[in-house]
Amino acid sequence: MNNKVTNILLVGVGGQGTLLASEVLSEVLMLAGFDVKKAEVHGMAQRGGSVVSHVRFGQKVYSAIIPEGETDILFGFELLESFRYLPLLCKGGLAIVNDLKILPPSVALGQEAYPENIPDKILSAFPASKVINGMALAMDAGNPRTVNTVLLGALSNTLDISEDLWKEAMVKLVPAKFITENLKAFELGRNAC
């Protein structure tokens, strides 16, 4: 009996919807019949600090924390955060990354430089990865705050789970007044890769 555990690490900056995305992802996986464990780490600032969420699923999962170097999918909401956690990806892993720069205070104050060519570095190290202009797609969906749902749409292409389960989870967890634009954002993300 195969007890392969799949590990997805979600990384971003506070206020990007990383935690809602991890909630939706976990719900989808439970609806699909998997045992799911989730753990979250919030940065110093509620908005603007680093946010990391571990999601692990399989037939039976014993720990919520992904062992170092065993991340199968890095799901990044911001380029620099994605780049920082790239070393945790396993060999043959992939990253799904939003092509967005949010300058950390040290860069905004001119104390450090923002690394150049992050998308190229990600794709060079993990060729199966996808870098998506999530903001442009979210704007097409009618709301810039749907970037997280755009990215979930892109992620959904990498997991063998019915699209209906994704939509069921979103209807359950996304506030009703935002569901139409989130469903559109999800479709745009699915079609982006």
Oligomer: single chain
Average pLDDT works out at 92
Instruction: Tell me about the largest β-sheet.
Output: 6 strands, mixed
CATH homologous superfamily title of the domain at 6-137: Pyruvate-ferredoxin oxidoreductase, PFOR, domain III
Termini, distance in Å?
32 Å
Shape, per Cα inertia axes: globular
Number of helices: 8
CATH architecture of the domain at 6-137: 3-Layer(aba) Sandwich
Record the strand order, biggest sheet.
2-3-1-4-5-6
Order of helices and strands: EHEEEHEHHEHHHH
> How helical, in percent, are the residues?
25-40%
Low-confidence stretches: none
Class of secondary structure makeup: alpha/beta
The fraction of residues in strands falls at: 15-25%
CATH topology description of the domain at 6-137: Pyruvate-ferredoxin Oxidoreductase, domain 3
Description of the structure:
- The chain has 193 residues and is of the alpha/beta class.
- It has a domain at 6-137: Pyruvate-ferredoxin oxidoreductase, PFOR, domain III (Pyruvate-ferredoxin Oxidoreductase, domain 3), CATH 3.40.920.10.
- It is 39% helix and 23% strand.
- The chain has eight helices and six strands, in the order E-H-E-E-E-H-E-H-H-E-H-H-H-H.
- It has a six-stranded mixed beta sheet, with helices on both faces.
- Helix 5 crosses helix 6, helix 5 packs across helix 8 and helix 6 (147-156) crosses helix 8.
- The longest helix is centred in the first third of the chain and has 14 residues, at 18-31.
- It is globular, with a radius of gyration of 16 Å.
- The mean pLDDT is 92.
